[in-house]
Amino acid sequence: xxxxxxxxxxxxxxxxxxxxxxxxxxxxxxxxxxxxxxxxxxxxxxxxxxxxxxxxxxxxxxxxxxxxxxxxxxxxxxxxxxxxxxxxxxxxxxxxxxxxxxxxxxxxxxxxxxxxxxxxxxxxxxxxxxxxxxxxxxxxxxxxxxxxxxxxxxxxxxxxxxxxxxxxxxxxxxxxxxxxxxxxxxxxxxxxxxxxxxxxxxxxxxxxxxxxxxxxxxxxxxxxxxxxxxxxxxxxxxxxxxxxxxxxxxxxxxxxxxxxxxxxxxxxxxxxxxxxxxxxxxxxxxxxxxxxxxxxxxxxxxxxxxxxxxxxxxxxxxxxxxxxxxxxxxxxxxxxxxxxxxxxxxxxxxxxxxxxxxxxxxxxxxxxxxxxxxxxxxxxxxxxxxxxxxxxxxxxxxxxxxxxxxxxxxxxxxxxxxxxxxxxxxxxxxxxxxxxxxxxxxxxxxxxxxxxxxxxxxxxxxxxxxxxxxxxxxxxxxxxxxxxxxxxxxxxxxxxxxxxxxxxxxxxxxxxxxxxxxxxxxxxxxxxxxxxxxxxx
Length: 537
Known about the structure:
Blueprint: H1 2-23, E1 26-30, H2 36-51, E2 55-60, E3 71-75, H3 85-88, H4 103-118, H5 121-132, E4 139-143, H6 147-157, E5 163-167, H7 202-235, E6 252-255, E7 271-273, H8 287-294, E8 299-304, H9 316-327, E9 333-338, H10 347-351, E10 359-362, H11 367-371, E11 376-381, H12 385-393, E12 398-400, H13 407-416, E13 420-422, H14 431-443, H15 445-462, H16 465-479, H17 494-497, H18 500-536
Parallel strand pairs: 1-2, 1-4, 2-3, 4-5, 5-6, 6-7, 8-9, 8-11, 9-10, 11-12, 12-13
Helix pairs in contact: 2-16, 4-7, 6-7, 9-14, 12-15
């Protein structure tokens, strides 16, 4: 009996491994942006695919810890050095972007970064290994901002294999969706870089439409021109053809967000909102943080401006106002502050206050674990997509201080959903405005109640996000693409999509009919008048 039981267990084990081997795919994930917030969703997807048994190759700046065997990582962590180059090109990530047009110099630096990545020894090593081992990928997942390089790479490595675009910011792939048939209705969908909500005035809709099309076209042109130059210089005149039609050559656009963090909108079957891919079970807090949070009598304010903006770079007056408000908090409230410098918060030098007993600073903070703690009552955030998703998931209301990129539209959503209060960077120079924002969210129960409701909804989406993402990657790999999901709108124009051709024809026919009727009526009146004159004479 024992031998039979062991034989059954062994058979099940063998069959499970055979099944995993048969259905495992070779997947390339190309996700190069050197920002941890961008990397988190890609890392979550990588981990889920590896644990499902797929053979995953990753080109990116962040390695997923703890993965082995069927996980192959090519280290591009040196791309983080490019963050220092942005300032020299007029892009300062420590200041508020007053205009969306300020991103155009950023795109140029970004394009140069991509070219240097493709010309690096690490990338050449990757190409040699693919060639030597005759590796053929079933699907290539590409970060949505680098489609020209990603599609060309997919064509170079694996002919006629599908490409999946992965977006890790806000609620729409605003640079790629039009090309694959999901034409955006910008009267109701605020652009990724805009400060608007789903309800815009006519002038806001006009600005949203014009600015989006200008900025997105510049991004596409800069990245595509850079990719064409690289592949032409590397592979000769024919190499440029690898970039042709790159924006249309996407099987699926996968978005690591959903309408909860953006706005409901019509989407085509080849655009998939999978939701947050980086949410996970909170890890145990370091003792110093655990004790600090546990010891708060009434609550904790968590203050972090994300992975790009550094608190130490805040203007002197802004720091003074923030510290003054923190110092005036009622007894029992504490502050946990992500402070990226080895030096302490200069409270006495900035404000004249030497009492910092209710403030704890740390260079790095495990954010999800902190937000999961029941004593955290307020999150002062820059409004990045991943921070927004995390604070909603754990039910912590916000004060949003948007500096650039999708932070504007994310914070606008927080205000629109009444789960947070917007405090613009320039308003940090006003003590009254800082105090009003913090006190409003901390002491008005509506923010906490609304956030708890939103959090409950978010759990339904997040619980299936990774499984859904894995399913779609497997689906595209298994069937060699997703042409069956591609709508005919991929081959149309705004004029046709919004039925302006039909409306024009109807207006023309109506005008002609109206004109004919008017002429008939005119001639009828003339004939009637003539008849009357004849009779009277």
